[in-house]
Write a structure and sequence with these properties.
With 232 residues, this protein is mostly beta strands. The chain folds into two domains: 101 residues, Nucleic acid-binding proteins (OB fold (Dihydrolipoamide Acetyltransferase, E2P)), CATH 2.40.50.140; 119 residues, no CATH class. 15% of the residues lie in helices and 40% in strands. It contains five helices and 18 strands. The chain is globular, with a radius of gyration of 20 Å. The protein starts with 8 loop residues before the first strand and ends in a 7-residue tail after the last strand.
Amino acid sequence: MLEPLWESHLGRIVGTDGEGRPVVDFDGNPVGPRVARKAVRLDAEGTRAAVESRQPVELRFEEGDPRLPIITALLPVAPRTLHSDAIPGARVEAAESPTHVIQGRDGLVLRCGDAAVTLLRNGKVSLQGTSVETSAEGTVRIKGMAVQVHTQGALGARGGQADAESHPAECLRTGDGTADIQVIQSRESLVLRCGRARLTLLRNGRILLEGTYVETCAEGVVRLQGGSIQIN
């Protein structure tokens, strides 16, 4: 009797069957690689590319049956594995490394639809979306020289300042007027996961930061801004 899998799992497209349908696998798979149904657009050419890159995917399972996987989202391929054929052993190193680092020289942007996370060289971090949720099983900690909370009523009074701060990536320029900002973008969803810590960006603009302990720390100001702010 197989134990049902009700939660989503991080998997990979590892091949195709005789009809060109994607075959997926995931860590702890009790039944081995299986043909998967698709809840996302993936044509024949896209499937071939996904097999070559071992495309990461989010999997759900019909009625919790691990033999009936469904691809619910295509996740971004880690940059260090994109050109693994040019660096012998690169893919193995990525799989075995306990820590993966994605780095941009002037800035790094994670974007999916209306949701974006921006990290700039000057230390500014911005989460922007239609809904931003931070949840923890334990403590949520916010630390800074100042903590500012702005709801919809306060935004109108801020006027141009709020507009200027709403596009942090545009505020950074190097000497020649350009910035080297790495952008990682996904059409439906973008998920960063390590153990029980997860950052999810959805196309509808929702951002979820989840973990057992979540800390927001700044040397300067921590600003919370939204139509409403709920603390539970």
